[in-house]
């Protein structure tokens, strides 16, 4: 029964928002812009909401979050899009208001190049270190075998010959 109640509340919420969206679409048309259909407004709102981080939840998009602030952000996104603003303008507004942290996919610029290039640089350093470690480890073993005293060499040769006889 809880699932049906939640669905009903969600539908009523959308129905309550529809007159506001329709009024804003009419405003856009009055300003000379083409009116946006409610379906288009919903799709664009969802697209923008999926690219913005909820500032309360931090690891969820505004579209996925259930916090009150995220719901308010979705309403604001819907209002801005219905008023004729582009998705880029809406994202820029939120980035200006909350900072780059609100964008789930930060922009590539000089302030955050480390976020984009850091993993690749770390991978190259790690692979280089692994190759260096492996190459020095194999040469160290060879040096240990060649650093034997003459008596140890004779003993090693005897052990090797005994192993060879045992296998035959």
TrEMBL record:
Family matches, as CDD domains: CcmH_N (cd16378)
Keywords: Heme, Iron, Membrane, Metal-binding, Signal, Transmembrane, Transmembrane helix
Transmembrane segments: 113-134
InterPro entries: C-type_cytochrome_biogenesis, CcmH/CycL/Ccl2/NrfF_N, CcmH/CycL/NrfF/Ccl2_sf
Nucleus as UniProt keyword: no
Coiled coil stretches, renumbered: none
Signal peptide: 1-25
GO terms for cellular component: plasma membrane
GO molecular function: metal ion binding
One Pfam match: CcmH
Top-level taxon of the source organism: Bacteria
Record-annotated CcmH/CycL/Ccl2/NrfF N-terminal domain positions: 36-159
Function: Possible subunit of a heme lyase.
Entry similarity comment: Belongs to the CcmH/CycL/Ccl2/NrfF family.
Name under which the protein is recorded: Cytochrome c-type biogenesis protein
């Amino acid at each position: 029964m809880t699932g049906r109640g939640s669905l009903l509340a969600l539908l009523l919420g959308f129905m309550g928002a529809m007159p506001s969206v329709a009024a804003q679409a009419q405003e856009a048309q009055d300003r000379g812009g083409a009116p946006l259909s409610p379906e288009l407004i919903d799709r664009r709102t969802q697209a923008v909401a999926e690219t913005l981080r909820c500032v309360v939840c931090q690891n969820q998009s505004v579209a996925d979050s259930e916090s009150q602030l995220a719901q308010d952000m979705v309403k604001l996104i819907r209002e801005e899009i219905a008023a004729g603003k582009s998705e880029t303008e809406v994202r820029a507004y939120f980035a200006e208001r909350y900072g780059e942290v609100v964008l789930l996919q930060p922009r590539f610029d000089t302030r955050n190049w480390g976020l984009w290039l850091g993993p690749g640089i770390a991978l190259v350093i790690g692979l280089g270190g692994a190759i260096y470690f492996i190459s020095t480890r194999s040469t160290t073993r060879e040096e240990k075998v060649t650093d034997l005293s003459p008596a140890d060499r004779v003993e090693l040769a005897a052990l090797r010959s005994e192993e060879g006889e045992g296998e035959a």
